[in-house]
Amino acid sequence: MRAVQVFLVGLIATLPASAGQAGCGGTFSAFLDGVRAEALAAGHPPAQVAAFLADARQNPQVLRADRAQGVFRKHFIDFSRAVISQNRLTNGAANARRHAVIFDRITQDYGVPRGILLAFWALETDFGAVQGDFNTRDALLTLAHDCRRPDLFRPQVMAALRLHHRGDFDTATTGAWAGEIGQVQMLPADILKSGVDGDGDGHVRLKPSAPDALMSGAKMLAGLGWRRDQPWLQEVVVPDTLDWRLTGLGRDRPIADWEQMGVRARTGTLAPGLAGAILLPMGRKGPAFLAYPNFGVLFDWNKSFVYVTTAAYFATRLEGAPPFDPRSPVPGLSPDQMTTLQQKLAARGHDMGKFDGILGARTRAAVQTEQERLGLPADGWPDAALLAAL
């Protein structure tokens, strides 16, 4: 998958909030003057600031990409089958062997399994082959100037300037439309906080160096709370008699409780002594998974439910799990129907944010609440019956 097609990734490091200092909007030249003043006030040498901002320009294609994120309108089965190919599985195994020494270091230092990093490496940039062709500096400046999320992107501009000052960011650097850089697509603030010189050349450069990218991604996940030697996702078989109201993100229960209700691992056994939530990405008649605490950490890498679930499942495949059982899910809604559903849910008092036609975590939670109210199986999967009932 092209990196420019995915949602924002990475955790914003703790940096000074900047939107209030220099603002957003207005003419782009005046905005750059504000950035320049902020950088100088922060102590950056004038020559360095001038070099960083030389020839900076607004990129309208970045704004178009930001407003056109529609890839996650696909449901889990279609999306996962589109992005998890046999070629990617084969290349994943080959890269695991090629970088075995690095993965061994990662396991020892950070406790992050190679399957997780291989999955994100594949989905973000196809193992480094497609890293994006947007000028990173200009993309960050464009998004910081745009007044939708200045508090998110203005610190990234300052972080890129700091990377530039230490010789780890060239103003010609290209990447995703949202400013992510390198083979695992990290934002500049993430690189400042979690960047690792994996190849020992004295620099942290995530574009050319797979060791730098993999080590940095692992350090970031560890910093987000990844639990060493614990699973993240496991396919399960659920009984038809399960109380569907108990399923979904945030409804974690001890594994022993799920086993008493008849939930069992499709292969192997469930992890004893842990807790987890039952995920039904396409409802009670579709594939079923048990999400352990590590699964939640992945949402700090990417906020999309279907992307994170797919990446987590892909990681299990790269670690040897079999393909999931698709079963026979009830047909879902089209994007237009999903948008209508979101409007109806908002009219009933649910906080839906924008009506984007995407079945994200917020929409699923509202769906489950309305299913329960209407006496429908509360599995969080909207169908034509729910739409009609609303």
Instruction: Say how many strands there are.
Output: 7
Report strand order across the widest sheet.
Answer: 4-6-7-3-5
> What gross morphology would you assign?
globular
CATH superfamily of the largest domain: Bacterial muramidase
Instruction: Tell me the number of helical segments per DSSP (H or I, 4 or more residues long).
Output: 18
Low-confidence stretches: 1-22
CATH class of the largest domain: Mainly Alpha
Give the number of domains: 3
The chain-level structural class is: mainly alpha
Mean pLDDT: 92
The helix-strand sequence is HHHHHHHHEHHEHHEEHEEEHHHHH
What is the end-to-end distance? Answer: 36 Å
Helix content: 40-55%
Strand residue content: 5-15%
Largest sheet: 5 strands, antiparallel
Q: Can you name the CATH architecture of the largest domain?
A: Orthogonal Bundle
As a whole number of angstroms, the C-alpha radius of gyration is 22 Å
CATH topology of the largest domain: Helicase, Ruva Protein, domain 3
